[in-house]
Amino acid sequence: MFKKFDKEDITGSTQLKSSVQKGIRNKLVEQFIDLDKVIEEILPKKENFKVIKGRDHLELITAADGTVLFIKHRDYPYFPTLKLLHQYPFILPHQQVDKGAIKFVLNGSHIMCPGLTSPGAKLDETIEKGAIVAIMAEGKEHALAIGSMTMSAADVKSINTGIGVDNLHYLNDGLWNLPKQA
Questions:
Q1: pLDDT, tens only, 140-176
Q2: Which CATH number fits domain 7-81: 3.40.50.150, 3.10.400.20, 1.20.1560.10, 3.90.1150.10?
Q3: CA 171/CA 33 separation, integer angstroms
């Protein structure tokens, strides 16, 4: 999604009214488990945040200092950026890939089922189709990507072929390298 994303892909930004900001905060708290404990740190009520519009029906929620925090695409629910996920790793459920899949994930490839079911990988079988997940790597502390489950984890384990997770945002993609938006 963000492989070649840069400043030219941004079409405009909007300062939101406080009622709209409150609505977005409530959606985020509703969507993410345990986010209510840290939402004041991430998006304080006293500070205004912006929505930056991008090509292909993309919205980026930025903090007052211009840091991109959450992403909304018409095909997916809100999901955090990797930088935010590294600060608050409990926001998303985790799926772990084996060492062999790391270089492919970092090049923007989708996560294949065998990469989630092989030795070294850890598959959380409670996760349903369409859920946004953090992609962890065997032997690493921080997430290397964020993706959307294309099938339930139980189906990933039983079918074990094809794409298991759509890679939405990964380390060193265009969004990762995007400077703060003033």
A1: 899 999 999 999 999 999 999 999 999 999 998 888 8
A2: 3.10.400.20
A3: 23
